[in-house]
Design goal:
By secondary structure, this protein is an alpha+beta fold. It is about 30% helix and about 25% strand. Strands 1, 2, 3, 4, 5, 6, 7, 8, 9, 10 and 11 form an 11-stranded mixed sheet that branches.
């Protein structure tokens, strides 16, 4: 077969050369402009890409479902709700996740605190190691223990919805009844120098909650009560709580209608996940109160 290189094909014709026939010229022209043929085999990179595409197409519906659920859960924190009336600029900047929370009715509001009547709720609680209610290691251990119960480490192997807030409280050694709602509660046992953390349980269960598999987790009911509440932003520490408790007790001494209930101990509620900006976080301290005798 007569072969012609690209350089010779585009060279001007010479009289000393034998001119190719029209049929051969057409054949040469087609072969010079046609794209090179693909290899019979597939490279390792191409094989990997094909495999990824195949797997992606097979799992697309599942991935879309998971992404939808993830987006829905994330939106509860990215687009929080504001369910509390603001008393000042600090409270106006606070927001809480769009999760179920403890139900209450505001009885009285002043510049320094708010008086609420809180409906009953159930909690899952665990005693925290250490003497500090806001020690990172102790708080992390208790939080993880309660989260395991909430997300399936229970007799029904049932995953329950997260609520808000998380409550930390100081309590008497014999404990006190609490209900499950949100937040998570941490409390201190006075004679043992221990604090307790509580997760408020979803209200749809009522008292029919699955039992925890971990013996360190207990389920309790919190009865209806009246509390004085102060909200503040930022991150919580023991010094902050101590100072705010002192000021709240002093302010309540001047209240003409309510007084601190005998033996009442401080309770701290935290509504936001750790990644929340400090100035948008909502924390509350509260003391149980009662109406003064006339």
């Amino acid at each position: 077969m007569f072969l012609v290189s690209p350089s010779s094909f585009f060279a001007p014709p010479s009289t000393s050369r034998i001119r190719p026939s029209p049929i051969k010229s057409m054949a040469v022209n087609r072969s010079s402009t046609a794209p090179p043929q693909r290899r019979n085999g597939m490279s390792a990179l191409e094989a990997r890409i094909s495999l990824v595409i195949a797997l992606a197409s097979q799992t697309s519906s599942l991935s879309q479902k998971l992404l939808t659920e993830l987006a829905s859960e994330t939106a509860k924190y990215v687009f929080p709700k504001r369910i509390f009336e603001s008393r000042n600029l600090e409270e106006a900047l606070m927001s809480v996740p769009d999760l179920e929370t403890v139900k209450f009715k505001v009885l009285k509001r002043s510049d320094q605190y708010e008086i609420r009547e809180v409906e009953p709720y159930f909690v899952a609680e665990a005693t925290m190691p250490g003497k500090s209610g806001f020690d990172f290691n102790g708080a992390s251990q208790s939080f993880n223990t309660l989260a395991e119960y909430l997300f399936g480490k229970n007799t029904k192997k049932e995953s329950m919805a997260m609520t808000t807030p998380v409550i930390t409280r100081r309590t008497q050694s014999d404990g006190e009844k609490m209900e499950m709602t949100t937040p998570v509660i941490t409390k201190k046992v006075e004679d043992q120098e221990k604090w307790r953390m509580s997760f408020v349980m979803p209200s749809k269960y009522g008292s029919d909650l699955p039992l925890p598999k971990d013996s360190s987790v207990t389920i309790k009911e919190v009865p209806r009560k009246t509390v004085a509440v102060v909200a503040f932003s930022g991150f919580v520490n023991d010094e902050e709580v101590k100072g705010r408790e002192s000021r709240l007790r002093a302010a309540l001494k001047r209240d003409a209608e309510f007084q601190v209930k005998d033996g009442a101990l401080i309770e701290v509620a935290q509504y936001n996940p750790p990644f929340t900006l400090p100035f948008t976080r909502r924390n509350e301290i509260s003391l149980e109160v009662e109406r003064k005798q006339e």
